Amino acid sequence: MSRSGCHTERGELRIYESWDEVATELADYIAELSEVSVKERGFFAIALSGGSLISLMGKLCGAPYNKTVDWTKWYIFWADERVVPKNHADSNYKLAKDCLLSKVPLIPSHVYSINDSLSAEEAASEYEFVLRQLVKTRTVGVSEINDCPKFDLILLGMGPDGHVASLFPNHMVLEEEDEWVTFITDSPEPPPERLTFTLPVINSASNVAVVVTGISKAEMLHLVIDDVGPDGSMLPARMVNPGNGNLVWFLDKLAASKLQAFKCTEQEAKTGK
Ligand SMILES: O=C1O[C@H](COP(=O)(O)O)[C@@H](O)[C@H](O)[C@H]1O
């Protein structure tokens, strides 16, 4: 059961007792958004990240979702990818394929992985080109305020340093305003070459969910959500702010343990007030 589902300036916080509960609720949330998008638009355009998020999505492979979700309407993209071959252990595509995509009845041509035979720069511009075609046909929606794609859902994780997708703290790509997909060659975490959606694309989505679990992220989450600490201006997780969309944080109690909202609910639970 959710400890709290409170709305803050940084979006809605959904805090759960355990990793398993996060996984259960996340699957339900994704399935619900898929149903709404398919009803409204005929498609569900979803962008994945890598990392711990993918195993947290695992419940989508089982009942009831394997039967109830209209997988044929899913169009899958990556909010970030490492510039490695698709069969490499560091590939976000490989992770998603092994843990999720190969286990549900998706249409293979709807899976838009990043071209691993190109340089980082070429792959970023090709991926953006592909996205532009899909926005033209409205397979991916378009933002009302700029020409950016409007994904039905972008799923992000957050690293302990506050990075989301492959947008790292204080990196100059955080200031990118024109490109939809860009690349870096100096990731502070290996592998160094990566592709990533830019902030304007992330912030144009209809829904963004940031999924964060574990005590190693508690301090950073506190900085991001409670808006404390001296230098938050170039902290990627704090820059996620889908102006015309919804932002939901899926947290387990370990990750949430240093949040003001969590401490308040703990106090209320103890005192009954
Ligand atoms: O490097 C990356 O890290 C983030 C966070 O991963 P996590 O395992 O700490 O949840 C991930 O969201 C991103 O896609 C990935 O490339």
From TrEMBL:
Protein's UniProt keywords contain Hydrolase: yes
Enzyme class, UniProt record, top EC level: hydrolase
Any one GO biological process: carbohydrate metabolic process
Record carries keyword Calcium: no
SUPFAM superfamilies tied to this protein: NagB/RpiA/CoA transferase-like (SSF100950)
Domain Glucosamine/galactosamine-6-phosphate isomerase: 20-249
Alphabetically ordered keywords of this record: Hydrolase
EC numbers for this chain: 3.1.1.31
A Pfam family this chain is assigned to: Glucosamine_iso
Record CDD domains: 6PGL
One GO cellular component, as annotated: cytoplasm
Catalytic activity: 6-phospho-D-glucono-1,5-lactone + H2O = 6-phospho-D-gluconate + H(+)
A single MF term (Gene Ontology): 6-phosphogluconolactonase activity
Metabolic or biological pathway: Carbohydrate degradation; pentose phosphate pathway; D-ribulose 5-phosphate from D-glucose 6-phosphate (oxidative stage): step 2/3
Top-level taxon of origin: Eukaryota
Gene3D superfamilies with a match to the protein in the record: 3.40.50.1360
Record-stated family: Belongs to the glucosamine/galactosamine-6-phosphate isomerase family. 6-phosphogluconolactonase subfamily.
Record protein name field: Probable 6-phosphogluconolactonase
